[in-house]
Amino acid sequence: MVMPFYITTPIYYVNARPHLGHAYSTIAADTAKRFHSMKTNDTYFLTGTDEHGDKIVQAAKNENLSPRAYVDKISGLFHDLWPKLNISNNNFIRTTDQSHMNVVSMILQRIFDSGDIYFSEYEGQYCFGCERFYTKLELVDGKCPDHKTEPETIKEANYFFKMSRYQDWLIEHIQKNPDFIRPERYKNEVLAFLREPLEDLCISRPKSRLKWGITLPFDSNFVTYVWFDALLNYVSALGYPDCDLYNKFWPVAQHIVAKDILKPHGIYWPIMLKAAGLPIYQHLNVHGYWNIADSKMSKSIGNVIEPLELKNIYGLDSFRFFLMRDMVFGLDSNFSEEALVQRVNSDLANDLGNLFSRVLAMAHKYFKGVVPEPDPEIEKTSKIGLRMAALDTVAEFDQHMEVFAFHKALASIWHFISKMNKYVDITAPWELAKRKSSQQQLKTVIYNLLEGLRVVSGLVYPVMPGTAATMQKHLGLDPEKQFYKLELLQAWHIILPGNKLPKSITLFPRIDIKKDKAYSMAKSSETAEQLTIKPEITIQDLNKLDLRVGTILKAEPIPRAKKLLKLEVDLGEIRTIISGISEQYSPDDLVGKQVIVVANLKPAKLMGVLSQGMLLAAVDKDISLATLDKPVKPGTKLS
Length: 639
Ligand code: MSP
Known about the structure:
By secondary structure, the protein is α/β, with parallel strands linked by helices. It contains 24 helices and 26 strands. It has three domains: about 5-285, Rossmann fold (3-Layer(aba) Sandwich); about 330-490, Isoleucyl-tRNA Synthetase, Domain 1, CATH 1.10.730; about 540-625, CATH 2.40.50.140.
């Protein structure tokens, strides 16, 4: 029996614009959903945004917006991006939706009533970036392994969730269901973590510290911890507790996340479900990280990749294909524009694109674009054919796609494409065309090739839905008629002889990275944004800025941060300032220079160093520091 399919992405924090990493998880979920829609009409795909917590309040402050206005703005960026990447989500949840907040309150109350939530004083190491306490064991050299910053010691009375009670149950559940967390390395990681005693989870934040959250139903002085709120989106979006969607899809739920949020999904979430008396999800599918030249993508390093830009330059399906083909699901991958271009040129333009135009050109040349009738006798007796190979490919593809091994599924399709290319070479239709006696053979060969392309068009549908539709249109099939359904891909003789084929097209033009507009160049279009003047401010707003003259005393590069320099600046007092100017200025250019510093900017840690201010600069394609036209005493105020 074919089961319904429910897939979710993480709901993304709205403290940053969508980037390549978010696009990858969402395209992976879209690919999985589209694959299952080849088998069943009962699919449901959820994505959305995570909008409560410290991080968001901080980001809103930085933009001078209220949390509400800020979350609306950034959530809108995610919401509006997905259709442009052909994402077929059925729902977009926001944790600020009232219906979601009601479910969070209901579950909190239920777990509180059952005695799994208690009140206690706690002192611990808190990372504001992660919005959670860390145990000593989890810290690396005393620092948060993710943010590389030292956590702060916080002492607070809070509510705690008795996770420890469920530790043995969870270990047993994972062992009894070996593919509950996959690939296996992440299952092992969770089991390794569970070898240590599990600490209870602090699930509240006092309102004196954080107001932007969901109030605890049993104590209005607290809001709930952002993860307790966020994880419940997966059921609230289905209309839990009593909506048909929930009854149909929750029993088959599967999540996609990256390794960064393995612990909340592999440990907190199943335990929350168990404590609340809900069934546990089926599978947690964990992928690795896209890195840039082996380092993490981050705003402060300045290496964040914008998915929309890539799509605009290389085409949507090429972009989707590259992401799904190049990353081994579960492992990290390095993103580079060169690798993308190489993949598009070799797999798409050469292998698939050439085959497609070659076959259609022959069908037009030899049969005036009318699908020829294959000869059943030749089909029966021919030693080489495509039908069995197509059937094997569909079976392999199905197997790999079921376990999210997208790269392997695509490799199987391309193996078949290469077989088709060989079939053309071996059968040499141009030779058959020369002899009257081989006309039946020619018809059969061209028919087989058209059928092979039909199967390929269906198999590429989950990753490249646009290409699938274009191919089917040019094979004379009506894309509305769902020619991507698996049962049709397992069949042969689907294209009707006598059908007229439209004129062929180039599916994927070759890219010349030197001549075409590269992503790095397109990034300069960001400057268009700068031409828009920001809303008016009052003199009071302006007076909030404390601008001072600073003299740079020292400048040095920061290891692993391509764009950053660590500066020592005299402002009347000595400050450390991290500035993203190393591509424009060498340390020697800077020492002695007088610059303008925003002196009252809240200090922030960048690459583990506390930056106490910011230099003013004109930022266009180049960066030019704002300086003064005669020497001034360090620390002088600008007005
Ligand atoms: N809000 C939480 C998730 C709550 S889910 C109940 C969160 N948000 S996030 O915006 O930080 O998104 C993290 C997720 O974005 C990762 O798990 C992954 O899906 C995706 N990615 C972010 N950066 C990534 C890469 N560099 N590479 C691949 N995916 C990454 O955590």
